[in-house]
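Question: what's this shape?

___
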Amino acid sequence: MTETISPGISKITEKNGIEEYRMSNGMKILLVENHTAPVATFLVVYRVGSRNEAVGYTGATHLLEHMMFKGTPTFNSEKGTQIAATLHRIGASFNATTWLDRTNYFETIPSDKLELAIRLEADRMRNSLIRDSDRKAEFTVVRNELERGDNDPATVLDMQCFATAIREHPYHHPTIGWRSDVENMPTERLKEFYDTFYWPNNATVVVVGDFAVPAVLSLLDKYFGSIPPAPHPIPPVYTVEPPQQGIRRFELKRAGQLGIVMMNYRTPEATHPDTYPLVILRSVLSEGITSRLYQSLVERQLAVQIDAFHSQFRDPALFQISATLKPEVAHEKIEEVIIEELERLKNEPITESELNKAKNQLEARTIFSRDGTHNVAYQLSEAEAVADWHFYIEYLDNIKRVTYEDVQRVAKKYFNRDNLTVGYFIPIAPSSQPVEPAAQTRALHRPLNYSEIAGAANLEAWIAQGGLSKKTLFNSPEIALPTPDAQSSTASFKERTARRVFPNGMTVLVLENHMNPTVAIRGSLRAGSHFAPKDKPLLAEITAQMLNKGTDKRSKLEIAQELEQTGAAIEFNADVFATTIGARALSKDLKLILTTLAEMLRQPSFPQEELDKLKAQVIARIKRDQESTSVRAFERISQLVFERGSPFYRPPADELINSVESITVDDIRSFYRQQYGGGALILTIVGDVSTQQVMETVEQLFADWVGAGKMAIDVPRAEIKESRREVILLKDKSSVDIALGHAGRLRRGDPDYLAAMLANSALGQSTLSSRLGLRVRDIEGLTYGIYSRFFSPTLADGLWAVSVTVAPENVERAIDSTLAEIRRYVNEGITEEELRNEKSNFIGSFKVGLGTNSGIANQLLSAEFFDLGVDYLDRYPQMVEEVTIEQVNEAIRNYFKPDRMTIVIAGELNRVPTEPLE
């Protein structure tokens, strides 16, 4: 029943902890109050996406999304209040994304900054400037984003699949738009689009986290209440895609390494009842080692990767199956095997075990994905885009109702030849040729999106950020959460964390958090690539990944069956100095996950047949990486900056492949005996657990595990070399990646670590608000993404580099602008205002990052690994505040050497520049 809260706001309904309100101007409001952490997410989703476009202005929604960051009369560069800079200085994790059915804008922030986010989003709803000068600058940025996507064969293949399978409905068009439309779209067209769709009655506001409902409603009324509804009806989309009348095929041929088969079946809209059995089918086909396609393709060594994706959009779209081929395997063979598996689904019901596994996996994944204020807000916005928020809360119940008969029925209904579109990517070699280096040099992975810009992005995929969700979000009694400890949000991390060092040297840290029925486990051993023989640089990685391939007790498949039945997961990876452990489970499965983890760590069997499969997959990954301009640029810069003996030197691909081929089971066993043992093991366990029970279980499982302890690491600091310049030519690449860098010479334990990190942040942490971003992206419009980083400043000093992606014709301008800005920074130093803003950003983003179980577990692991102390999580804000401007300026002079930067340019260039640096 509707309840009037104020003249401008009425309460519509409440269910599962979600409160729906409606403003008099038509704007919908969804509130989820949760005081677990001092974090909140504010999100506005507009019901406009590429679905609302047509030929001539495809990409308008996406280009407009970019323009919405250019400012309003209140938030703009002229006043020094740019939207990105304003959000950066408070430590916000922010983004804007465009997809088929919607566009959303969001900020995850310390909750005391919520009013700023509300004010900002209300302002740009109707006051965005959308100036022609900004469009001209941003056009180059968007074109570079388009070119980046065009660099990746899988992205192009997917785009062509949609365009081939869907011909009349606007889902035919890619969200980023067709190139000629993007290049020729006038500013007036964008203004018209803005004035058509950006109104409160075409939007839903979602607020999740630490706030009081009355206070937020008052702020929403204050800032949004005066905005009128649209003066016209919002244009509907009425195009309906006609039935397909026969199989469609196409081939994509271009430079590359590994072939891809992508099979696409037309399926109905998200709200159709068949959505839920199709979701089950996706899980049965491709979720985990026990899935049918993994077993029939990857296990048989026909493919190195398999995935399935079921579109859940407002209108009918596609069920997609994608397989990356092992070299020498024919595309036709992969297609044949996939069709055989689909026919089997049509002719015989799935097993009870498969159905239960799929439901358990989906339930667990749904619960995990609702851990975090951002995650909850984002999923509510997706539900609003395709239906409304009830789609979100009813999702699990609808999954649970699916029967064997439903699954078989939809398989028969949709997986048929006349409903199929098949796309092949057929690679053409060679994909690159070396270019002789210039006499003197004038840097790594993919460019950033806005959320990465705001956070701590890194080549090695750093911590995900977010907040904690509310227990009443789940519409299932068996996953109801216990009442939280009232002290949890006020007690210090040191007070809340139990730490124990066992007699064998193992260290365990446990923090109870009872607001979500999940547990996150992070861990490490000193078993990274630094300790491997130099002629087998990937031995540490392969050893780590062999840990879940079978034990003395059980096979890989038996272990996978048990874990996948509960939705739990355990992963192992190796970086330079450590083998890292990542695990998650529902709280009720904690004993299972710990027992399985102990079995994997202590009793690995290293079967030969699994090693053969893994080696083939690693080699395929290395080959696939060679298609990437960003990987190639950073691979080469590591070779130019570091000596071969450095832990940060990456050998050429052919050497890596040869070394992988040479690795034997005996090599793995030897490395395991040398590096693995309880003495170096650190485990952090955070979630809905009992500390006493965790410690008792860990003691039973690990306390008698002896072996390697904390091995000493003695790596000399790398010297900064003279500048060099090289070009790597890769064919069929529309965008160029440039890496500029030198030895970083910064380690985690250095007394000026925070000063150096603050110095880098002001220079290049954010593509949208740093000095480099404002000049090269915002003012000059040369790139979609530019950033600078200290890469791996851990127990030794890795690379410091700038990464920028540009069109081939903009390479020299981007390099010149980047170097000029770094030189200016070194000469002038940081300003008081910049330092104040960066300190605020560091403290705010640190708080945001501690909003999830995994975020806390990661930070506890980092503090323990680097001997910072459990109280580091409490001390960090004050440590940041104590850094002086003199310390930061000294760090700038010590760590940034623009005239000694090595530069690598990777891509397809019409002209190879050879002139030396000025």
